[in-house]
Amino acid sequence: MINKPYNPEMALAYEKNARISIPTYDALFTMAQAYFRMQLGEKEASLLVVGAGGGNELSAWGPSNPNWSFTGVDISEEMLKIAKHKAAQLDIESRVTLIQGTMDDVQPSDAKFDAASCILVLHFVNDVKEKLKLLQTVKAHMKPGAPFVLVTAYGDPQAAELQDRLQVWKSFWLDAGTEPKRVQDMVEGGGIMKISFIPEKEIECLLTEAGFTHITKFYVTGLFGGWMCKAD
Keywords, A to Z (predicted)? Predict the structure, then answer.
């Protein structure tokens, strides 16, 4: 239960920074929605949103899909306040349940989810075994054949390819008017490189091991990639 008022300054900063770091941020949600719509059709559907803080999945998918209901999970109380505020603004509160915590706090149920998303979450989980556990837990809450979208930072930290993409990411911030010293500090200070990068092939292997099939990469911008697949 999120009772305290949300922080509008934090909400604005989050929205601004996400769109600088990922210039195709809004297109990402449009693409994910298109995949879900093709899989779900017009039926009533329950969606699990892992990392729902900020409420952007709710904003992007809630108003135009009145047959969808959402269960959102996030560890951050502050970010869930933003999601709750957005749900109220969009008048979709009756279709939204928000849970502060991790996937371990989502109670098992016979009524499993028709679809799920995990957008910009996995790279905050450092241990590969914990990444696998998260994906396995998500899959366990999904109906057989249900569509899943995963978006995360990816790449081999030791490879030149990731370093080249890092330069592009830096240019996003410079083009947005960020001071060069601050951009360099964001890299050298460990900000962006503190998140857990793993190679693309390893991400696909984790999805397979977790029980997902039909794994297809559908999205790339800068440091981030997206995969669509189905629960086996």
Answer: Methyltransferase, Transferase
